Amino acid sequence: MGLQQAMAEFTFWYNAIRPHQHLNGRTPLEAWQGIDPYQQIPNGTYLFQAWDGLLAGVYLRR
């Protein structure tokens, strides 16, 4: 795996999957788009895993 791919995976995980305490449990992507994840049902859920399991979570597609 190259550095560019590793950085892309980390960026996606950090911004779209990992909830942030400072954002009241929302991801940065949800905050930027003004989405309240507690009021809107996702269109689909996808398991995300990268870096041999170090980055893992569920992506809520909206």
From TrEMBL:
This is Transposase. It comes from Chitinimonas viridis. It comes from the Bacteria.
